[in-house]
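Q: Could you write out the predicted structure for this multi-component system? I'm mainly interested in how the pieces pack against one another.
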Amino acid sequence: MALTLHGTVADNTAVLSRPSAKPLIINGDMAVAQRVTTTGITSGGFYSIDRMKVDLNDGGTWTQTQDADVPTGQGFANSWKLDCTTADSSVAAGTYHVARYLFEGQDLQLLKKGTSSAEKVTVSFWIKATVTGTYIAELYDVDNDRQISQAYTVSSANTWEKKVLSFVADTTGALGDDTGSSFAINLWLSAGSNFTSGTLNTTWAGQNQVNRVVGQVNSASSTSNNVYFTGLQMEVGSFDANSIAPFQHESFGDNLSRCQRYYQRILEKNSAYFCVGWNYTTGIAIGKLDLVVTMRTTPTLICATVTNGYTFYRAGAGDHVDSLFLSDASETNLAIANNSQISGTAGHGGGWYSSSTDSQLDCTAEL
Amino acid sequence: MNKDNIQSVKKINNIMTGDLGSYKITTIDGMVMYAPATDDRNTEYKAVQRWEAIGNNTIAEAD
């Protein structure tokens, strides 16, 4: 198929220079939110938008949602909203709150980090925050405990602003070519003196906590505070606001499929079969679940305990059970089971059915 | 998920083989999850190992 260029050659240069066919960051447009909404967040984890993590310690209480508030005219339909519901206006030394994106090392070999050919990196994103002032963006090499920070300014309260931050290359410390967590973009929201009492480190160096987040404002100063992100993008090379390539939008299906390497929601709705199974013995029923994409690692199963939330139908009858456990797993399939509320005849086949709107069965292989 | 999120851990046997099949983790906020028995790339498995390393005891499944 012929490639047709539009506009001048210069207009197309940035797009064509991308060394990766797909965006390096998965779900940077915040379109996929399998976990929906989480309230009462006081510690780290993945809570709403797929692939978007927070690390949080003593930095207030937050709600995370997928929101429709987006920058005008940019082609985004969703943002990641972090809403402070309990303030922490007195920042303790050990306080931290960081919005993070984590990469597998094997996905960033193109950075050639730790070699004389190492690449520069540019991170771009849209932010809308209540608290104005200095914020810190950080690249963190997990494998080699190295980091580089850069300050940026949120100029206007509750106004979408695009930030484009270019970072120098790091010729020290190669990233592991594996499925492990090797590299992070850290967008800091609050930090205590353990992270702020030194001099901001703006060149790649071994981690020294006190130099990581110098000058960071406190986003948890009031329950009126919100922070939104969308359009998170990372490009190989050095770009500014004029030269950075446009955000690469993916179809929702492609985006969801890439997210499912890390998290899969098995039960999408009530009153539906979710896997086939069999009576292994009279008192044990097993189900075999094929995952929709190969996951990063053998996943962890999350199962909500719900009275009669799951039913094993076999031979014209059903056993209602409250929960399922993980008997065995690989990156591609799971064996789930119940051995406390099952009757029936060994050898009979059947199907596992979701019997309640509260039923939940998820697989996670997050970094 | 890290070791500080864990309230208790119980070993769950593989139904077919009787070997260790997964770790049942109850988190401090009451969520129940099952980490794989042996995958050291899995975040929850690593959390269980660290949780045990600081002196906590995983409960063996009753026969």
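A: Regarding packing and overall arrangement: Helices of chain A lie at 9-16, 193-196, 252-259.
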